[in-house]
Amino acid sequence: MNESTTFKALVVRELENGSFFRSIEQKRIDELPAGEVLIKNKYAGLNYKDALSASGHKGISRNYPHTPGVDACGLVDSSESSDFSKGDEVIVTGNDLGMNTSGGFQEYIRVPSGWVVPKPAHLSSKEAMVYGTAGFTAALSLYKMEKMGQTPEMGPILVTGATGGVGSMAIGILAKAGYEVIASTGKKDADAHLKKLGASRIVDRSFANDESGKPLLRSQWAGAIDTVGGNTLATCVKGCQRKGSIASCGLVGNHELNMTVYPFLLNGVNILGVDSAETDMKLREQIWHRLSKEWKVSDLISFGSFISLDGIIDQMDLILEGKTKGRVVVEF
Ligand SMILES: NC(=O)c1ccc[n+]([C@@H]2O[C@H](COP(=O)([O-])OP(=O)(O)OC[C@H]3O[C@@H](n4cnc5c(N)ncnc54)[C@H](OP(=O)(O)O)[C@@H]3O)[C@@H](O)[C@H]2O)c1
Asked: pTM (2 decimals)?
């Protein structure tokens, strides 16, 4: 491997008319950013954020041409850090990968050693990317909820955007951790997928979108993992039983939150912010370890759809339309 070696990459270019064009191109190693660890990717997971980056969302990626992809997993090709050696199996998710740093949708990435997590022994590379940032975020949500005292005995957990990446992984992890799960979805054909993950009750999206305007609702869940935001997040909080926690991790519906403070003051409900990209390394390794052991989703691989790098272009439109189910993973 030398700096002029070429490899395949998804490249998003900004055109003169202001639109963005995605294509698979050949890149050279010397076009990758500086970093201590060069990784040959085996798998890369698709996230909602990647599709935003690939659509020219300047809040995610400022400069183009750009290769998106916030998740990657593969083998160390070379390392200037003594923490890693050629052939080590590693995971990189979050930090700045795929945002303003060239990301996972290419055969090689080069990153700072501080972003690299050794792959846990009980997880294959393929399984790691079925989780990806989605699984990591779902696990971080549960970790934070349990820190605030959430237990399975308190009652069911509501998961919104249930068939999406974060939602699907949240259901699987919660079920594995012993929680009863209520899955809220907009899809009519998702029962088999959600039941297989471990959901005990499946409800329509409208269940978690209260429009009565009431400041508090009859409590029907003991906590929630919300990927939708807006009025759905407000509903999660208003309908949560006393002392329960709501992990706010997404905004596919809306980025605003309009509600009163009554659920916090009268019911002691907690709203927890989840910022997976910035998780420090010690906690990151701890979460990946739990994902590989006691929280490992049963039959994890079956919740991934595996595609070639060329297939990623169409999948990005589908995820933006909320039409994907589970996790889409590029296999190199
Ligand atoms: N905080 C963090 O660290 C972090 C990390 C990862 C992701 N996220 C965020 O989490 C969210 C989900 O990401 P993802 O990768 O799981 O995306 P995804 O796979 O596209 O899942 C989103 C799901 O939400 C539902 N949905 C889509 N549009 C909706 C709408 N307008 N109203 C209500 N529900 C809608 C759909 O599920 P149903 O059809 O089943 O309802 C969809 O499958 C995104 O906002 C992403 O940016 C945050």
From this structure: 0.97
